[in-house]
Design brief:
Chain lengths: 295, 684
C-alpha cells in the first residue's frame, strides 16, 4: 500500500476524492491495530440529557433500566470544525520533480478533509494567495466534502505573491466556533510575519497546524555552475553561484526552517515540514498523532 | 625539431577565446525559475577554478585547433639525417664552355685548359664514386649520368665542344639544388671555368646552394689581372636597304681591361672587305666608326664588321649581320577622286620620310577591282563610299596571301554596312558637337604595338568625326576620348588589315597638319609592307626564330641551314617545329612555313667579351651557401654532415594540416550534435 502514497503515483489519479480515500484508507488500515489510535464509532461517555439535545442520541436501554435520559457520546462525535487553508500563490507552482508543491498541497488538504469527513467533523476551505480566492464555509452537511474537493481541485496557482494577513483576518471574521485550522503553504515569508498573522487564531482557542510544503530543491538547491535565477513571484533575476547555493543558502534555509518551527511551537502551533519528494503518510501520521492527543 | 617562424607561436594565445566561450561566457544563460530569491545574494563565481567547463569535448577540440593553427604558422620541421647513405657522395664536374672560353692564353684555349683540369679532377675522385660531367653555357647540358665508369666520364670531358652562348652560373646553381634534393646525398661540385663576372645572375640568391653541396672552384685564365680584350660590341645596320648609297652602318668597338689603342675596323660584304677605317678606342672605353654606302647585291647579303685586335679572344673580333637589298615596295592608293586631299597628304608624308622603300600608285576603285594586286605590298583605301563588285574579294585574297591593307573610314564610309576585309560592322558616326566636346582627342594607345609605340604628341590632334566601328574580332590599337575606336587591327591569313576610322585629310580632323602624321604614315606602310612585325634579321645566340605562325601552316616543310650549311632540323621537326634556337654565331638560312627565305645573323652575347673574373669575396660567399643558409647553425650542420653525410629539414606542415582538417571535421560533427540536443526541448 505504501506505493500508493508516493506523490508521483498519486499524481496519476485524476479524481481528488479517490486520492484522499486511497491515502487515508490505506494509511488507516495500516494503523488500526494500534491501541493508541482508533476511528470507529467508539463509545466515549454518557451525558445527561438537556432540553434541545437530539433525541436520536438518547440511550434508550439506559432509560429503560433507570428511567434516566442520557445521551451516548462517541469519540467520533467531537464536532470539531476543521478549516484548511491552501496557499495558491505563484511560488507553489514550483516543482523540480514530477509533482508541484500545489499538487502536493491539494493531496494533503484532500486527505485532511477526508479524515474530517470520516469523523463527521465540519470541514471548510480557504484558497488564498495575497487575497482570498475561494472560501467554502465549514459545515458537516451532506455533500460538503464533495464541494470542498471540487474547490481544492479548482485551486490554481496565480501570478501573485503570498499574503498571510488577509486570509487569516478573513478566517477570523467567519470563524465563530473553535476548531482546527490547517494551513498548507511554502511559507516564503519572514517567520515572524507568518506567526504574527496566525497566532490570533490560536489565542481564540483554535488548534493550528502548519504544513510547510517545500520542494527538495528549495531545501538544498543543486545548481550547476553559475546560474541566473528568476523569482517566480516577483520576476526578479539574480546571478547565483554554485558555491553560494551549496554553502550560504543551505545555512540560511536551515536557520529559516528552525526559526519558523521554534516560533510556531512557542505560539502553540503544530508545525510539519513536508518534503514533496516524500510520501504523504509521514505528514499525516504526525498530524493524526497531534489530532488524537487533543481530542 | 625546430620552427622556421617561431614568433607565430604567439598566436597560441588565441586559446583564450574558447576558454571565454566555454567558461566565462557560460554564466550568461537563460534564467532558471525558483520559488523565491529570499535567501539568495548576488554572487559571481569567485574564481575560474570553481567553474566547470561546459561541452568539454568541444572545448578540447577547439583549443587543439587553435594550437595547431599557431603551430602551422610557426612552420615546424625536424631534421633527418641520412645515415643510410653511409658516406655516399656524388661528384659533379662542371666545365664552362661559354663563348669566353674560346679565349686563348698561350698555345691552348681556355676550354682546353678547363678540360685538362677536369681530367685532373676526375683522377682525384675516389674509385667507385658516382660522378657526372656537365657542360655549362647558357643552359646546362648533362654529358653523362651519375656513373662510376671513369672511362665514360673521361670521354665525356673530351667531347665537350665550345659554344657561343653566355655562361649562366645561376643555371648551374639551380641544377645543383635540384640534384641535391633528389639524390639526398652530399654532392661535391667542381666548377672549372674562367668565372666571368658577367655570368652572375641578377640576384645573388639565385646562386644559393643546398646544405651539403661542397663547391670547389677551379679558375681558368690569368691569376694576377684580367686579360685585355677588344671586341666589336655592336653594329647598327638596316636590315633592308633600297638604295646602296643611302645605307648607314655604324659599329661600336669596345676595349675591356685594355689600354687606349687604335684599331682598324673593316666592313666585309659577302666575304670581301669593302671598306676599312681606323678608330681610337680609349682605355676601358668605346669607339664608334661609321660606314656610308654598301654595294650590296639584291637579296640577302652576309656582312661583317671586323677589327684587328690580336687579343686572346679572336671570336669577338667579328660581328656578323645580314642586310637585304630589295626593290622599293609598291603601294596602291585606291581613291574615288571625290576629294583630292587625302592622296596628296598621304603621298607627301610618304615622300618626306626620306626613305625610298615605298613607291605609290593611284587607282580608282573599279580599276583596282579589275587589276591584280600581286605587285603591291600595301593597298590603301581612302574613305570609299562603296566598293565595286569584286574589289573586296580581290582585297581579301591579297591580304590572305600576306599583303597589307590600310583603310581610312571617313565621312563617305559611313554608308557602308561594314568595314571591308576587317569584317566589322560600321555602327554610325561620332561627331564632336558644338555644345559638348568641340573635338575628340586620342585617349588610349596600345604602346606595345609597332605602329603606335613610336608615335608621340598625339595629344594635340583633334578629331571632329570618326566612324563607329565595332570591335568584336579586331584589336583596338587606339581610342578617342569618347571611347570610339580610332585604329583597329586584324590579322587575315598571312596579312594584316589596319582600319583608321577618320579621314586621311583635314575633312574630319587636323591630323595632316600635325608633325605626327608623317611618322604615322611611315610606320603604317612599313608595318603592313613587311607582313606585320616581321622577323628581325639579326638576333643573339640562343634566341628563337619563328618558323610558322598559325595552325594552318602545320605540315608545311620549313628549312634551316646553319653557318656550315648543314640542316638544323630533322624531317619531323621541319614539318612541325614552330621555332628553333640559334645555337651558334654566324649566318642561318631560314625558309619559313610561308615560303619566305631569309638570312638571319646570330651574334654571341658581347658581355662574354668582358673577361673580368668574379671577385674573390663573391666566390667565397657562393661556396659558403653550400654549407648552410644560416650562419648560426652552420657549425652544427657541418658537424652533422661530417658524421651523417647530410641533414634534411623535413617540414611537418602537411601532417599538421591533415590533423587540423580532421579536428575541424570532428568539431563540426560534435558542435552540430550539441546544437541539435539544445534545440530539441525548444521545439517540443
Amino acid at each position: 500500500m505504501q506505493r500508493f502514497l508516493d506523490p508521483a503515483v498519486l499524481a496519476g489519479i485524476s479524481s481528488l476524492d479517490l486520492v484522499a480515500k486511497t491515502v487515508v484508507d490505506g494509511f488507516i488500515s495500516g494503523l488500526h491495530r494500534s491501541p493508541d489510535f482508533g476511528f470507529s464509532q467508539e463509545f466515549a461517555e454518557y451525558k445527561a440529557y438537556m432540553p434541545g439535545d437530539d433525541l436520536r442520541h438518547v440511550d434508550w436501554n439506559v432509560f429503560a433500566r433507570s428511567e434516566r435520559m442520557v445521551l451516548k457520546r462517541f469519540k467520533g462525535e467531537t464536532n470539531t470544525q476543521v478549516t484548511v487553508l491552501i496557499d495558491a500563490s505563484r511560488s507553489m507552482k514550483y516543482g523540480s520533480a514530477k509533482m508541484e508543491k500545489l499538487e502536493y498541497a491539494r493531496f494533503l488538504a484532500a486527505s485532511v478533509i477526508y479524515l474530517a469527513h470520516l469523523q463527521r467533523d465540519a470541514a471548510g476551505l480557504i484558497v488564498f494567495d495575497d487575497e482570498v480566492r475561494n472560501f467554502v464555509a465549514p459545515s458537516s452537511r451532506q455533500g460538503q466534502m464533495m464541494r470542498i474537493m471540487h474547490a481544492i481541485d479548482q485551486a490554481e496557482a496565480t501570478n501573485t505573491r503570498t499574503d498571510f494577513g488577509k486570509p487569516f483576518a478573513h478566517l477570523m471574521d467567519f470563524l465563530r466556533k473553535r476548531g482546527l485550522v490547517v494551513a498548507i503553504s511554502d511559507f516564503w515569508e519572514n517567520p515572524e510575519t507568518v506567526i504574527r498573522n496566525v497566532a490570533p487564531l490560536r489565542s481564540r482557542g483554535n488548534e493550528l497546524v502548519l504544513f510547510h510544503v517545500l520542494d527538495p530543491e528549495e531545501i538544498q538547491p543543486k545548481l550547476k555552475g553559475s546560474v541566473l535565477l528568476e523569482d517566480l513571484e516577483t520576476g526578479a533575476t539574480m546571478q547565483v553561484s554554485q558555491e553560494y547555493a551549496r554553502n550560504e543558502y543551505k545555512g540560511k534555509m536551515t536557520a529559516h526552517l528552525a526559526d519558523i518551527k521554534d516560533r510556531a511551537i512557542a505560539a502553540g502551533i503544530d508545525y510539519f515540514l513536508c518534503d514533496t519528494s516524500k510520501p504523504l503518510d509521514a505528514a499525516l501520521r504526525q498530524y493524526l498523532a497531534i489530532r488524537t492527543g487533543r481530542l | 625539431m625546430g620552427l622556421f617562424s617561431p614568433w607565430f607561436l604567439a598566436g597560441a594565445l588565441a586559446v583564450g577565446l574558447p576558454i571565454w566561450l566555454h567558461l566565462l561566457k557560460r554564466s550568461k544563460t537563460d534564467p532558471k525559475q525558483f520559488p523565491s530569491l529570499m535567501f539568495f545574494e548576488h554572487r559571481e563565481t569567485s574564481s575560474v577554478k570553481h567553474r566547470k567547463l561546459d561541452y568539454i569535448l568541444l572545448f578540447i577540440l577547439r583549443t587543439l585547433m587553435l594550437l595547431l593553427l599557431a603551430l602551422l604558422f610557426a612552420h615546424p620541421y625536424f631534421r633527418r639525417s641520412t645515415p643510410a647513405n653511409k658516406g655516399e657522395r656524388i661528384t659533379v664536374i662542371a666545365v664552362d664552355r661559354s663563348f669566353s672560353m674560346r679565349a686563348s692564353s698561350g698555345a691552348s684555349t681556355r676550354l682546353d685548359q678547363a678540360k685538362a683540369e677536369a681530367l685532373s679532377v676526375l683522377n682525384s675522385v675516389p674509385a667507385n664514386t658516382k660522378a657526372q660531367v656537365v657542360a655549362l653555357s647558357g643552359k646546362l647540358e648533362a654529358m653523362t649520368q651519375q656513373v662510376t665508369d671513369v672511362g665514360q666520364l673521361r670521354a665525356a670531358i673530351n667531347a665537350i665542344q665550345p659554344s657561343d652562348s653566355r655562361a649562366s652560373y645561376g643555371e648551374l646553381a639551380r641544377y645543383l639544388r635540384t640534384l641535391r634534393d633528389s639524390a639526398g646525398v652530399p654532392i661535391d661540385v667542381h666548377l672549372i671555368s674562367d668565372l666571368q663576372k658577367s655570368g652572375m645572375p641578377p640576384g645573388f640568391n639565385d646562386l644559393r646552394l643546398q646544405p651539403g653541396t661542397n663547391l670547389t672552384l677551379h679558375p681558368i685564365g690569368p691569376k694576377d689581372k684580367p686579360q685585355p680584350n677588344w671586341a666589336v660590341e655592336s653594329v647598327n645596320a638596316p636590315a633592308r636597304i633600297y638604295d646602296n648609297k643611302k645605307a648607314h652602318i655604324s659599329a661600336t668597338i669596345a676595349g675591356f681591361n685594355a689600354p687606349a689603342s687604335t684599331r682598324t675596323v673593316s666592313l666585309v660584304l659577302n666575304g670581301k672587305t669593302v671598306a676599312s677605317k681606323s678608330v681610337q678606342v680609349p682605355e676601358n672605353g668605346r669607339g664608334t666608326v661609321e660606314f656610308v654606302g654598301l654595294e650590296a647585291s639584291f637579296g640577302f647579303n652576309k656582312c661583317e664588321v671586323r677589327i684587328d685586335s690580336a687579343d686572346g679572344l679572336a671570336a669577338d673580333d667579328r660581328y656578323p649581320f645580314a642586310v637585304e637589298h630589295a626593290d622599293s615596295k609598291k603601294i596602291l592608293f585606291v581613291d574615288d577622286g571625290r576629294r583630292p586631299n587625302p592622296q596628296k597628304f598621304f603621298r607627301a608624308a610618304l615622300e618626306s620620310s626620306g626613305d625610298t622603300e615605298f613607291a605609290m600608285d593611284v587607282l580608282s576603285p573599279p580599276a583596282a577591282a579589275g587589276s591584280t594586286l600581286n605587285g603591291y605590298s600595301v593597298v590603301v583605301l581612302s574613305d570609299l563610299g562603296s566598293l565595286p563588285g569584286g574589289l573586296e574579294a580581290n582585297l581579301q585574297k591579297f591580304v590572305s596571301a600576306g599583303g597589307g591593307l590600310f583603310e581610312s573610314l571617313g565621312v563617305n564610309s559611313i554608308s557602308m554596312a561594314k568595314a571591308p576585309v576587317l569584317d566589322e560592322a560600321i555602327l554610325g558616326s561620332a561627331y564632336a558637337q558644338k555644345t559638348g566636346d568641340r573635338f575628340y582627342s586620342v585617349a588610349e594607345m596600345d604602346q606595345t604595338h609597332p605602329v603606335v609605340k613610336s608615335l608621340e604628341h598625339m595629344d594635340g590632334v583633334e578629331f571632329f568625326q570618326a566612324a563607329m566601328v565595332a570591335s568584336t574580332k579586331a584589336n583596338v590599337l587606339a581610342r578617342l576620348s569618347d571611347g570610339t575606336p580610332l585604329l583597329l587591327e586584324k590579322r587575315v591569313g598571312e596579312g594584316y588589315v589596319l582600319a583608321f576610322t577618320s579621314s586621311l585629310d583635314q575633312a574630319s580632323n587636323n591630323f595632316p597638319y600635325k608633325p605626327v602624321y608623317v611618322p604615322f604614315v611611315e610606320e603604317v606602310v612599313r608595318y603592313l609592307g613587311r607582313g606585320g612585325a616581321g622577323q628581325p634579321a639579326n638576333m643573339p645566340v640562343d634566341g628563337f626564330v619563328e618558323l610558322r605562325s598559325g595552325t594552318g601552316q602545320q605540315g608545311v616543310t620549313t628549312e634551316v641551314l646553319d653557318p656550315d650549311g648543314q640542316r638544323v632540323l630533322t624531317l619531323d621537326e621541319a614539318a612541325t617545329a614552330r621555332n628553333f634556337a640559334l645555337s651558334r654565331e654566324g649566318f642561318f638560312e631560314v625558309k619559313n612555313a610561308a615560303g619566305r627565305r631569309s638570312i638571319i645573323a646570330a651574334v654571341a652575347d658581347r658581355r662574354e667579351s668582358d673577361l673580368t673574373p668574379l671577385p674573390e669575396e663573391s666566390q667565397k660567399l657562393w661556396i659558403a651557401t653550400g654549407a648552410s643558409n644560416d650562419p648560426g647553425v652552420q657549425t652544427a650542420q657541418t658537424a652533422a654532415t661530417k658524421v651523417d653525410g647530410a641533414v634534411n629539414q623535413i617540414s611537418l606542415a602537411p601532417y599538421l594540416l591533415v590533423l587540423l582538417l580532421l579536428l575541424a571535421l570532428a568539431e563540426s560533427v560534435i558542435a552540430n550534435r550539441y546544437l541539435r540536443s539544445s534545440a530539441q526541448p525548444l521545439e517540443s
